[in-house]
Amino acid sequence: MAAPDTHKIPTTIVTGFLGAGKTTLIRHLLEQAHGRRLALIINEFGDVGVDGEILRGCGVESCPEENIIELANGCICCTVADDFVPAIEALLSRGERPDHIIIETSGLALPKPLVKAFDWPTIRSRLTVDGVVAVVDGAAVLSGTFADDPELAAQQRAADPSLDHDNPLEEVFEDQLLCADMVVLNKSDLLSADEKARARAQIGALLPRAVKIVLTSEGRVDPELLLGLEAAAEDDIEARKSHHDDEPEHDHDEFESFVLDVGPLADPEQFIAKLSAIAEQHDVLRMKGFFAVADKPMRLLVQGVGRRFRQHFDRPWRKDEPRHGQLVVIGETGLDRAAIAAAVA
């Protein structure tokens, strides 16, 4: 491992599958920054920036709003030259230099192309990858939502080489782990002791080297544990294998997202039950958005992973803000948009 360059700004890349809890973890980091001046670059898959809106609402001195840059509707691993480098340039041209930069990738991003960008001359001279942190939803892993049984797949391929059992969801998940310097096994409060052990074993079997696995819930991890890894990941990029190493370019044609407008909700619980049924029927990976509730001055934030949904009122509606809801729907290509829209209405 190369010695850290004290003149370079350390940067932590937070990766993880859809709904794993990346934004919650980052919010906790901001609230427990212990004097660090932080800057954020947030990337989302979809037109509506829900995660950026959540983090802007933190209102903590450690990360003023001008230090939050949002890259929406384009996966950062595919738009390094067009989006990431200009975002870094813009961030470093503003006022006081941050002590640490945190990048939240979209849930469908591959971290390795982003780490490679830190080898660009204009970036390498000023930034270093302090560490890649992969956030994992423990309950989702155990339910097999995106991690298939690798041993069973290998047996099937051996029995019939003509079969193609590749799963793009599994590949994204594994690529995020293969690039990680630390894995945060989130939502551990939803798991029994035996399930925690099985989740750790399943993740550990995919890791190519010694990587610490930290169990937590609600993304509560001490910043002193996550920040300051001094991995200099850009210097050992070849050791971080990827399913997509031999591809000249990477795209996300296997995934799609769209946004639905939603009127004021009369019954939030009924609405969430409806979303849960839609997720199961149409195999939706992720749904999230902000909504107005009849006779309520507060904005309702709803986030779902598969059939599991959470909700809370995050802030009052502003006087000049239209009170209408928007739902982001993310899934594998081929979602029946018309049927989903009709079911939401």
Description:
The chain contains 12 helices and 12 strands. By secondary structure, the chain is an alpha/beta fold. Strand 9 and strand 10 form a beta hairpin. Mean pLDDT is 81; it is low at 147-165.
CATH class of the largest domain: Alpha Beta
Order of helices and strands: EHEHEHEHHEHHHEHEHEHEEEEH
The CATH topology label of the largest domain is Rossmann fold
* Main sheet: strand order: 3-2-4-1-5-6-7
Return the average pLDDT rounded to an integer: 81
Keywords:
alpha/beta, Rossmann fold, 5-stranded antiparallel beta sheet, 12 helices, Hypothetical Protein Yjia, Chain: A,domain 2, 345 residues
Topology:
Blueprint: E1 9-16, H1 22-31, E2 38-43, H2 50-56, E3 68-71, H3 80-92, E4 100-104, H4 111-117, H5 121-124, E5 127-137, H6 138-142, H7 150-159, H8 168-178, E6 182-186, H9 193-206, E7 212-215, H10 223-226, E8 255-262, H11 268-282, E9 286-292, E10 298-305, E11 308-316, E12 325-332, H12 337-344
Parallel strand pairs: 1-4, 1-5, 2-3, 2-4, 5-6, 6-7
Antiparallel strand pairs: 8-12, 9-10, 9-12, 10-11
Short description:
With 345 residues, the chain is of the alpha/beta class.
